[in-house]
Amino acid sequence: MSNGVKLRGHNMTKNRLWDKLGKGLTFCHSNYLEISKLSEQKLLIPKMVGFSIPMLGFLLFCCLAVVAESATYLKYKDPKQPVGVRIKDLMKRMSLAEKIGQMTQIELSVATPDVMSKYFIGSVMSGGGTVPAPKATPQTWINMVNSLQKGSLSTRLGIPMMYGVDAVHGYSNAYNATIFPHNVGLGVTRDPQLIKKIGVATALEVRATCVPYVFAPSIAVCRDPRWGRCYESFSEDPKIVESMTEMIPGLQGDLPANSTKGVPFVAGKKKVAACAMHYVGDGGTTNGINENDTVISLEGLMSIHMPGYVSSVRKGVATIMMSFSSWNGKKMHANRDLITGFLKNKLKFKGFVLSDWEGLDRITSPPHANYSFSVEAGISAGIDMVMVPFNFTEYIDVLTYQVKHNIIPMSRIDDAVKRILRVKFVMGLFENPIADDRLANQLGNPQHRELAREAVRKSLVLLKNGKSADKPLLPLPKKTTKILVAGSHADNLGYQCGGWTITWQGFSGNNLTIGTTILRAIKNTVDLTTQVVYSENPSAEFVKSNKFSYAIVAVGEPPYAESFGDNLNLTIPDPGPSTIYNVCKAVKCVVIVVAGRPLVMQPHLSSIDALVAAWLPGTEGQGVADVLFGDYEFTGKLARTWFKRVDQLPMNVGDPHYDPLFSFGFGLTTKPIKA
Ligand code: BGC
Ligand code: BGC
Predict the structure, then answer these.
(1) H or E stretch including 589?
(2) What is the pTM of this model?
């Protein structure tokens, strides 16, 4: 009867039972206590004299009920217990398989409720473009997440999984989400409060689909625009990147005063756990080649690439994702000094470290050449959760073998699991594992679209305005007879959003999500009497033979992501240059560059009247027209150096060979026109 003795300490359980079963059981309970007391004294039989057999049976039933209830009191499930106590209680109940399961993140395409329960999977994620259905509604997402979650909750210990998605510029995989400008544009705003609000909005849109975890923000410091991920970076300047970590309290909520340094914080059901990435030096690779080697001194690494992490940890970031890149020849995924030594021991980061996609495999080249070596190197270095993402049984088997054979010490597994559980407890996942559709209407919320439109306005940089300073072309008049809109990027929602939108590599056209193209925005803005002619790539004759008052030409890069964006020449892709010449030779023109980075502009500059860098503005193209037509003024200042020629690269502000076309911090202004 030791259970019974123990039970007497658990007032809460008793009270709950009383509420449920009422008076009859109070009687039963007092007898139970008596029985248990007596049994300790081995005096059970004499005390029972006087009860009929059915009565005894009933009493026994009551006792069993109470004992069963006492077994369901699990300290780790009690939100009144401190997180540390809950972690400890849960850890001591967990088997090795359950622990390794927590350290496993799989992709949606291989996840089923059965897989969740059979392997105790800790996390599921959507890769770029992986959705439960094309143009999935929030309800479809919710049903999917909840059904996988039920698989996790059906296990012995019922540890909830956490679902993670990419959200580097809003909820990028989700149909109808608000897509904000990519970071390269947000850096221009120099407005951390705006970036924080974008974090708040993004968290709500992600939570609309029941997802509690995002892989964002990217705090890469892109030092070479030839890098295919340069648009995911706020700036070449570490100070700007550091200030933009305000995205984190936006996503996760404000850290309460007096919180312990490095402890993750997520403020409940309208917030999400964030993931600062990619640790560390991803933006500093040689020639801007993705996943390449970052050759730099420790001092350089610490002063350029590290400040964003120091500030993210200070702001309570829940997780940090590793970089595919190397530092001075050593793969970051295997860098114990920087993961365990610096991040965990020195910075006191208490959240968890996530690998990147097949990041362990890529420790060797070719990838997956020696998977046991990779697992050992990555886990020993301090990675806590592995984005496997497909072949999870191989990972689980290899890691299990290594723990059983003392290749990886149990203490390392315990450290990883403790961190993962800490994040899950802190974010309230145990209390609210299953969400409802209460936030569903937050996806694409008009207020978020307004916020994105504001961000677009503030991210534009005016680089040239008129052939001479006393004859500015901008702001453009709304009322005139006829204007021309041209260029591959004028009426292409996919192009203006860039990579990581709906699909991994982004898309072309206007059909895959909801938003406003630049052309639509212009039409919305000009006077009703102004005729807008749109021709994507007009001939010189066509332009000459029409009497346009002026032309707006939007050209730039097609979408790309990761290594597909690496580019050693950075020229405007065809037919961009010929569109510029055909139009600008015949009529006054403003050229809008829609691209993830500065492109070679010097040869074209003299032939165009006005030049605007719009970066990758996202779904709210209206922000472009707001400023072009003077409803708002241009305020953006370059957060990247605009080079003259690629042979100057890398070239960043402060470099001895600095000789840019437009320097870091440059940006002309206009005065708004009062209507
Ligand atoms: C990227 C990460 C991303 C992950 C999941 C990786 O290839 O480097 O930024 O979060 O895929 O989509
Ligand atoms: C996935 C991305 C991932 C990439 C990494 C793609 O297939 O969709 O999420 O970042 O692979 O190579």
Answers:
(1) strand 589-594
(2) 0.90
